[in-house]
Design goal:
This protein is an all-alpha fold. The protein contains 4 helices and no strands. It is flat and about 60 Å long.
């Protein structure tokens, strides 16, 4: 099984080497935040709320545009609501 946190940290370490190519660290951190947000969304959709929260924290700490900040905030609210309302799933029977 893949460890998403380990994979992300490995990727981030490689991303940071791009500063050697005169790419500003702020641009790399912004990219890091976007990728972390995308990973958080995938884990949220799969129901892995704790992993989603970890990646959302990374995304929230990264520099971002206003629209990305709004997406982070929206997912933080969705995560909190889903945790509060999380009950065992109910199996619905067919009508017949």
């Amino acid at each position: 099984a893949l460890n998403p946190v380990r994979r992300f940290l490995d990727w981030r370490r490689e991303l940071r080497t791009l500063t050697d190519c005169n790419i500003p660290l702020s641009a790399l951190k912004a990219r890091e935040g976007l990728v972390a947000l995308k990973i958080a969304r995938v884990h949220y959709a799969r129901g892995d709320l704790s992993t989603a929260a970890r990646f959302l924290a990374v995304a929230a700490a990264a520099p971002k545009r206003r629209s990305e900040a709004w997406r982070c905030l929206r997912y933080r609210f969705k995560l909190a609501a889903r945790r509060r309302l999380s009950a065992p799933p109910i199996k619905l029977q067919g009508a017949l």
